[in-house]
């Protein structure tokens, strides 16, 4: 996979009529009261829907297609200080007003340094008045990271990256890039691109970066000539110095809990090979002390599969069929399980204030579940004119009490979680 996190794995009338509310006996809607769990919305906000594609200015809503005729991925968005930043397949970075959905600026082809006919642009993060964007070409070509001014959309700097052995991560006040031959990473200033430090990666390993707790970690998996164990590097953001831990290759780093790193071990077959795939099952929780490397494991009450999210001491598993299971990250025991109508939901988004878990599907359907009991609070109808079974949904983003989500055909929309049935205006 490329470093920029490109998106992974017909309701025309609906786009005209606005978001619906799937009401039935098992699809209840929100019931606001004087003691509502829902936060107040920002001043001037109203539900909106727009498209991330430039052709929308001419009234066209058509998702870019790959050479095989399939939708190659919808927009991926980030929320920061009143704005929504999006990019996607053949979708140049755009800044939207988070309250109205109106386009503030859109990066032009010359500023994007495209160089190729088809690229995927992914928003890596926003901070220090800079939005960092990954550009990954479709097929052969140079992968780059670009920085744009949040106020004007003008390009600040760009660098070529080599993603053969490592990916890119936006972390704190730096962006970490694999450069040169790809066997080392360089941390650079978000605003200026100035070098902060460079650190070599373990030989014959492919590394992916993760933030866990307050730390930055690289989980490095051996290639065919490796040792069979994964190395986990804790990197100091200030100077790049590292501390090494060792875990089984089947373990995937999720985050931190109670000061320890939390991994999930994939289930293995009789020959010791990991079971992989869209709904590959997990067998146990692995807890690692980052200071000593001491490890303990907790067997899951049963094997759980799907896209997994760690938040507030809970693991949320969402399968491609829409089943959501909450599991205690401390004991491995199930807390609740709920079936939804969400198709291929993405990662769960946890709102600690409302104690609600939000998920979005590849069709643009959004669902809300009570984080403690698993009660399905509401679901919306789909929003996408076109969907693709190979495209995975992006996360729901929290915006000052409202929600922001996107669909594979390019729609970006914001809704009120207390009244998801409200019709949007055009951004």
UniProtKB/TrEMBL annotation:
Residues 44-204, 284-418 form the Pyrrolo-quinoline quinone repeat domain. Coiled coil: none annotated. Keywords: Kinase, Serine/threonine-protein kinase, Transferase. One of its GO terms (molecular function) is protein serine/threonine kinase activity. Transmembrane segments: none annotated. Pfam families: PQQ_2. SUPFAM superfamilies: Quinoprotein alcohol dehydrogenase-like. InterPro entries: PQQ_b-propeller_rpt, PQQ_rpt_dom, Quinoprotein_ADH-like_sf, WD40/YVTN_repeat-like_dom_sf. It comes from the Bacteria. PANTHER family: CELL SURFACE PROTEIN (PTHR34512), OUTER MEMBRANE PROTEIN ASSEMBLY FACTOR BAMB (PTHR34512:SF30). This is Serine/threonine protein kinase. It comes from Streptomyces swartbergensis. The lineage of its organism: Bacteria, Bacillati, Actinomycetota, Actinomycetes, Kitasatosporales.
